[in-house]
Amino acid sequence: xxxxxxxxxxxxxxxxxxxxxxxxxxxxxxxxxxxxxxxxxxxxxxxxxxxxxxxxxxxxxxxxxxxxxxxxxxxxxxxxxxxxxxxxxxxxxxxxxxxxxxxxxxxxxxxxxxxxxxxxxxxxxxxxxxxxxxxxxxxxxxxxxxxxxxxxxxxxxxxxxxxxxxxxxxxxxxxxxxxxxxxxxxxxxxxxxxxxxxxxxxxxxxxxxxxxxxxxxxxxxxxxxxxxxxxxxxxxxxxxxxxxxxxxxxxxxxxxx
Length: 257
Prior knowledge:
Elements: E1 70-75, H1 79-82, H2 97-110, E2 113-119, E3 164-168, H3 179-185, E4 190-196, H4 198-211, E5 217-225, H5 229-240, H6 249-253
Parallel strand pairs: 1-2, 1-4, 2-3, 4-5
Helix pairs in contact: 4-5
């Protein structure tokens, strides 16, 4: 009938579908080529601590940096992250304090803008990540709460006239802050990064810097740290693979650099 829908009658005995699992889900099954059985365990690399650090080696610098257009970011070198017993302790942090102090000294000698990137949170944790808010309860001082001793820089690191202090509440120093605006206003084109910790605040800040076309972006490998050497080196390797320079403090501090 015109204007009516057409219905298709399904057969009373639909074809039988084989719903048994495919053969490759059988634990005894192996993919076989002409001469090779591919069911062996993958050949995972040895832990980074057992391998050479040569993956981070390279000629530094690739070109002479313009120090007047460079900023040094010192990230999260605060007591709650660095000192023994700190609630957010980064195990490798204490070891790099002398190198961070030295990096700041060299930066000031070169006329590099020093930017102190710190976490400072509302005492009730209203601006902290959701997964950390349980650390901020009434009557308890949460990590790096504004005005707390744990939010202070570790001994030996001092903000001086001409430096810039930036407060962040997330991993990246660029996220929901005015860092990019400040750097652009100062004519900054390249960044040098120190501090903690490599897989979190260092990495996310560096990736954002690369996305924003700062060039070059440099991470001083022995003035940054993570919970373990393997974590540190793995993340440095990832950053090197996107064009980030990874010199040691000595390499970066040399007069020719």
